[in-house]
Amino acid sequence: MHICKKLFYDINFEPDAVQPCCNVHGIRVPRFPFSGGKLDMASYAAHIVHVVDTLQDSASLVCKGCPELEEVDIGENARVNINFHTVSINMHRHQCNCRCVYCDLWRHDGSSYSILPALQSLWEQHVLYPQCSFSWGGGEPSILKEFEETSRWILENGYFQYVHTNALRHSPTVERLLREGRGAVNVSLDSASPDVYRAVKGINDFTRVVEHVRCYAAAACVPSLVHVKYIIFEKNNSLKEIARFLELCASLNVGVVQYSLNFKDLNSVGAQPKSLLGAAFFRRRAAELGLATEPFFIPPAALQAIEHMERAHFSDVTS
């Protein structure tokens, strides 16, 4: 039968619903209405059973075209067993203090709900895997009044956290996570200069963000807990800017550099050839600088194109 394992192992809190993923593929995903408080797991499990049945209907549009759907033989008498390995926190998706041009989320209504009661209800109902990982997305988590308290609750219950932040604000709790090795941070810097930062992020705070990245890298017990990302698209796909970004990350002792593409492009016309070339150069130059490199939600076809360009254009480049 057609199944996505995220239905049983992952949960994502959105502003008005709970769903099994962040829907990076721009398709119709199953949604369970939710607006805060405790999450009733009996009702949610019944919802998942219905979703599984729906996925077997070839005419259904739910999850249609998703590359993560797979054919699995689970037997006729199999029971739904929900045990969350990941919890994604995105109920503040429309709350942000940045104005990135590749993102429209900040243009929408920013209302949300308190997430701590929902997380505590998952813990009380014993549906959290012992090594469950919590991911803060958004929006921008550091501007939430409850962020520090909720992050401490997750930490003190022994779970790992991955915090996606623009680093406009410095978080004492994030610094503690890094110091204790109980979390990692991901900053989308997307630039190496104030001018390009302003063109991409819509604000004029490059210097402050770089200083906060420096503080996080200095606090981390191991460099691999600090990830800095570059979303490559028309406004920043200059090879010169990418090279300067990688050199900056090396100077800050960043552990991992990530390259990504504009989701808007990927879900419509596809990434521009110059952006794919920029990603190919990013990979090669990062390797020359000794930086660990990761792709961030790049579809297989685009990743193959990037790898082909790296071999074709940069195989003989030396540092």
Structure write-up:
- The chain is of the alpha/beta class and 319 residues long.
- Helix content is 37%, strand content 18%.
- It has eleven helices and twelve strands.
- It has helices at residues 6-9, 41-55, 116-124, 147-156, 172-180, 194-201, 206-219, 239-251, 263-266, 273-288, 300-314; strands at 2-3, 10-13, 17-19, 32-33, 70-71, 84-89, 128-136, 160-165, 183-188, 226-232, 256-261, 292-295.
- The strands form two sheets. It has a ten-stranded mixed sheet with strand order 4-3-2-6-7-8-9-10-11-12.
- A hairpin with a 3-residue loop joins β2 and β3.
- α4 (147-156) runs parallel beside α5.
- It is globular.
Strand order of the largest sheet: 4-3-2-6-7-8-9-10-11-12
Question: Cα-atom Rg, whole angstroms?
Answer: 20 Å
Count of DSSP H/I helices: 11
What spatial form do the alpha-carbon principal axes imply?
globular
Derived from helix and strand composition plus strand pairing, the structural class reads: alpha/beta
Distance between the termini: 50 Å
Q: In what range is the share of β-strand residues?
A: 15-25%
Mean pLDDT: 93
Q: How many extended strands?
A: 12
> pLDDT under 50 segments (min length 5)?
none
- Give a quick account of the main beta sheet: strands, pairing sense, barrel closure: 10 strands, mixed
Q: Give the SSE string.
A: EHEEEHEEHEHEHEHHEHEHHEH
Note the quaternary state here: single chain
Helix content: 25-40%
